[in-house]
Write a structure and sequence with these properties.
This protein is mainly beta and 129 residues long. The chain contains one helix and nine strands; from the N terminus they run αβββββββββ. The protein is globular, with a radius of gyration of 14 Å.
């Protein structure tokens, strides 16, 4: 349980690096397409898998797995929920909160993504550098 909580904390902290400039000062539709599988920005050799958000009831919601690079890999199931905010003719998903299914760990994430014209786009990692 502690490993999951630590992993998710690292994911949340690492996601801070994925943040771009303040809302409104960047073109969200220029962000790269959000992929369902990507390396964790929190490090630790984890891969995020199954990130496939939907927008419903004023929220952006996705389940996902954090998978370690260990052999055999450790797999942690989670859910993330973001506020769905109208922006630039689409929906900005921000103010994220996550919760683990297994050990009850939870937290927040500054990770953001944007939905417009049927495409989800993620805040670029390069924007924080």
């Amino acid at each position: 349980m502690r490993a999951l909580t630590m992993t998710m904390a690292a994911l949340a902290l690492g996601a801070a690096a994925a943040q771009g400039p303040a809302q409104g000062s960047e073109r969200y539709d220029a962000w790269p397409v959000l992929k369902s599988t990507f390396p964790s920005t929190g490090g630790g050799g984890y891969t995020i898998k199954g990130y496939d958000p939907v927008i419903a009831g004023g929220k952006c919601i996705t389940t996902f797995m954090a998978v370690s690079s260990d052999t055999p890999p450790e797999v942690y199931a989670n859910v993330a929920e973001f506020d769905a905010v109208p922006a630039q003719g689409g929906t900005l998903c921000t103010n994220g909160k996550w919760k683990a299914f297994g050990d009850g760990g939870s937290g927040t994430t500054p990770f953001k993504f944007f939905f417009k014209d049927g495409v989800f786009r993620a805040a670029p990692v390069e924007a924080a550098k």
